[in-house]
């Protein structure tokens, strides 16, 4: 795990999106929100499509904890995700360069969840074809 990162969590009943990056900007927020809303709309009955997700943030390091404590970061983040995905269905979408590491940490605490790993928000903003590829993966795996 890096010594400093931020995670955005958009939680709906059907899919929880987790976007992770070292420095997330407004355009990252907008893209992750749009992906989350698209997944929700695809999974919702027509009358429920206007529901907004719960939006949460996780920042590492936490106040009072050394940024170099990798195990503490993993443990704190896994606990945060477990708590905030407990009410959702079984699908979690992890986006970002750290998603492989996060998936390993998260799976230890949430074996009942279906996890899909996607590209980073930066990569999707740079290469538009990654958005199309992600959408196809979301559909193929029942996320959308």
Low-confidence stretches: none
The CATH architecture comes to: 2-Layer Sandwich
Order of helices and strands: EEHEHEHEHH
Percent helix: 40-55%
- Dominant shape: globular
Q: If you consult CATH, what is the topology?
A: Nucleotidyltransferase, domain 5
For the record, what CATH class applies?
Alpha Beta
Number of discrete domains:
1
SS elements, strand count: 5
Question: Strand order of the main beta sheet, please?
Answer: 3-1-2-4-5
Class per helix and strand makeup: alpha/beta
What does this structure look like?
The protein is of the alpha/beta class and 144 residues long. It has one domain (5-140): Nucleotidyltransferase, domain 5 (2-Layer Sandwich), CATH 3.30.420. The chain is built from five helices and five strands, in the order E-E-H-E-H-E-H-E-H-H. The chain has a five-stranded mixed β-sheet with strand order 3-1-2-4-5, sandwiched between helices. Helix 2 (70-85) packs across helix 3 (99-109). It is globular. The mean pLDDT is 84.
């Amino acid at each position: 795990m890096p010594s400093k990162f931020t995670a955005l969590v958009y939680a709906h009943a059907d899919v929880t999106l987790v976007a992770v990056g070292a420095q997330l900007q407004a355009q990252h927020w907008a893209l992750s929100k749009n992906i989350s809303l698209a997944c929700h709309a695809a999974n919702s009955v027509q009358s429920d499509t206007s529901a907004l997700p719960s939006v949460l943030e996780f920042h590492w390091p936490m106040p009072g904890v050394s940024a170099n404590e990798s195990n503490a970061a993993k443990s704190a983040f896994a606990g945060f995700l477990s708590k905030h995905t407990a009410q959702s269905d079984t699908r979690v979408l992890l986006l970002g360069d750290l998603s492989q590491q996060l998936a390993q940490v998260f799976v230890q605490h949430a074996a009942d969840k279906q996890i899909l790993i996607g590209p980073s928000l930066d990569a999707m903003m740079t290469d538009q074809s990654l958005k199309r590829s992600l959408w196809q993966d979301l559909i193929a795996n029942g996320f959308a």
